[in-house]
Amino acid sequence: MHYFPIYTWNGIEFDLSSLLAITVSAILTFALVKLLTLKLSVANPSKAQNFMEWAVDFVHSTISSAMPLNKVRPYMSLGLTLILFILISNLVGLPLNIVTYVHEPMLGITQAMLDKYAAEGGHAEMAWWKSPTADLSVTSGLALIVFVIVHFLGMKQNTKHYFQHYFKPFWFFFPLNIIETIAKPVTLALRLFANIFAGEVLIATILMLKGYGTPFMIAWQGFSVFVGGIQAFLFTILTMVYISQAAIHDDDGAH
Amino acid sequence: MDWKWTSFVFAMLAFGILYWLMNRYAFKPLFAVMEQRRQMVLDQMNAAENSRKEASAEMEAQKQALAQARQEANEIIEKARVTSTKQADNIVDTARSEATRLKDEAVRDIESEKNKAIASLRSEVGSISVAIASKIVEKQIDEKSQEQIVDNYLKEVSK
């Protein structure tokens, strides 16, 4: 297994590969979207604009499947940012993997580790590149953002029903409701992380097969793209469902 | 694979900044354009609906005008027919009366001519018969009537 470069500064550890991947993904997402919306036109949209509008419509229909149509508008930007950032994050780790051999203690690799590999006749390997979403720190960060948004909106827009729902259907369901509340962001983070991380682990494993692994690699890369898309979609729609549950109270009592 | 709080914080920070940037520089203009397009389509549909209504009203007006024109034409034709019939009747009447007048005149002429002829014939016949009679009388009177006349005369005288 690879090590990730850990830079320690005043006792604070920075995972350089993770920070790099987050930054690159974010810049890539923004650059892509900005590029596609450079020349906006009302009457004569370009192909890029058409694609972007298709994406907007897709996210719009996704969100509107989770909440009433007239409430969708404020969450469009959030949904689009989530789905695009996570999709791109899921995909950036697939095509390349930058691995260096490490022969001296650096960035979190200690002499003891090096000695162990040297004794086995191999190298300590340092992976500089990965999907940011293959890192639990990142997915839990996203999940926390969603958690904060969901509960903030719940308290702000739907105060009475938000606090009541912890004691429904009966007051002694309170512990269960608390567990559910905590489980939501945890599963959100773990699901995304596990899917992408597993994909990258398998890619690393297939790489060990050298040339024989090529057909597996092709199949698995394709499947990983699919999984990346599904997970991005899932994260977004679950976020919207959670927002809808907490912040939007149907007068008909529909959930 | 450790959980690094630096990555955790950085991810949240990056996502927050990304959200703000995307919202400010990409989605807001895009949504505005999409909204404008929606508005434009709505306007155009309304305009199309209006012009359709206008066209159908115009069509109705044209139809009415056409019907009116047709009716007027029919009236004119009808009037012309009535006038022409009347005129024809007039002409025929005039012709008839003229013919009657001519015929009457002719009859009167014939009558007067006939009368004239009869009158002249009568006078002619009178004179002719007088002439004939005088001729005959002349012839018979010569001996006998001379004697008679003389006798008569003598008788009277002798008386």
UniProtKB/TrEMBL annotation, chain A:
The keyword Chloroplast does not apply. One of its GO terms (cellular component) is proton-transporting ATP synthase complex. InterPro entries: ATP_syn_F0_a_bact/chloroplast, ATP_synth_F0_asu, ATP_synth_F0_asu_AS, F0_ATP_A_sf. Its main location: membrane. It is found in: Cell membrane; Membrane. Key component of the proton channel; it plays a direct role in the translocation of protons across the membrane. Belongs to the ATPase A chain family. This is ATP synthase subunit a.
Automatic annotation (TrEMBL), chain B:
F(1)F(0) ATP synthase produces ATP from ADP in the presence of a proton or sodium gradient. F-type ATPases consist of two structural domains, F(1) containing the extramembraneous catalytic core and F(0) containing the membrane proton channel, linked together by a central stalk and a peripheral stalk. During catalysis, ATP synthesis in the catalytic domain of F(1) is coupled via a rotary mechanism of the central stalk subunits to proton translocation. Component of the F(0) channel, it forms part of the peripheral stalk, linking F(1) to F(0). Belongs to the ATPase B chain family. This is ATP synthase subunit b. It comes from Paenibacillus herberti. InterPro entries: ATP_synth_B-like_membr_sf, ATP_synth_b/b'su_bac/chlpt, ATP_synth_F0_bsu_bac, ATP_synthase_B_chain. Keywords: ATP synthesis, Cell membrane, CF(0), Coiled coil, Hydrogen ion transport, Ion transport, Membrane, Transmembrane, Transmembrane helix, Transport. It is found in: Cell membrane; Endomembrane system. GO terms for cellular component: endomembrane system; plasma membrane; proton-transporting ATP synthase complex. The keyword Phosphoprotein does not apply. The chain crosses the membrane at residues 6-27. NCBIfam families: ATP_synt_b. It comes from the Bacteria. One of its GO terms (molecular function) is proton-transporting ATPase activity, rotational mechanism. F-type ATPases have 2 components, F(1) - the catalytic core - and F(0) - the membrane proton channel. F(1) has five subunits: alpha(3), beta(3), gamma(1), delta(1), epsilon(1). F(0) has three main subunits: a(1), b(2) and c(10-14). The alpha and beta chains form an alternating ring which encloses part of the gamma chain. F(1) is attached to F(0) by a central stalk formed by the gamma and epsilon chains, while a peripheral stalk is formed by the delta and b chains. Residues 38-116 form a coiled coil. The keyword Coiled coil applies. It is a single-pass membrane protein.
